[in-house]
# Entry
Amino acid sequence: MRVRNLDTFYWIASLGSFRAAAEHLNLTQPAISARIQVLEQDLGAQVFEREVRNAELTSDGRRLMAYAERLMNLEQDVLAAFADTSNIEQTIRVGASETIVSTWLPDFMGHLNQSRTPLSFDLRVDSTDNLRNALVAREIDLAFLMGPVAEVSITNHEICAYEMVFAASQSIAGQHEMWTIDDIANQPVLTFASNTKPSRQLRELLAPRSSQPPDMTTSTSLGAIIRLAKSGMGVCAVPRAVIEAELAAGELFQLATDVPLPAISFTASYVSGSPINRLMNDICQSVLDFLDNRLIKNIYQI
# Structure
């Protein structure tokens, strides 16, 4: 029996479909099916139900899964034991919110590769909702997102928070010396996507102050929000760390206001009990060490 066939079996069972396993292993679905056919011939047992749409295990398949998990854990143990000398490069599928990507993540990835066995990263930048779904579906290994993820199967590590501020172009910012909540409620407001926690909190804050629903333009792209604010379209509500360059260049101005905006908190989240669980935990600890001197009361500082 070839180890690669057992490895293929593990990924089909873990990801829930032949298609997902084919994408993960960079193989065609016929190649995946052929490996399982050979595996079943070698074992003399059927490991997947044939008349079910998803990859559902038979009783023999469930028995085999325990051995497949032990094999995958052993592979990680070997890599960990030879971490100082191994030339094997592991690929980690990372999902991250744009806030994280536009602040410290690129520097951290470079730092991580200098301090341990080389890793390669398959990076996906997306909204928190999409990252949460991808993590639960095991389409990514590690997610940096507005967490925590409320799933029993997910381990969450709190990593940092960001101060939220209101900012605008000079033509808008100069309209008031001190901005009240009513002043802000009567301006177009630009912020995170409508299904995110900060967007909902902002809408609840502004709605009672206006006879009309708040004029809010939302987007999954922080870059788009910032460009719209620079063009004078409205007041943006974004993490201060993301617009440091625009503030320094005088392209945006932080509004003086006593309107409270809750900080947004991020977690590093991964699937509990997976073969790379130890590696994920090590990476999360490396994140905390890397950010240690960049946080003040857990708020990220440039």
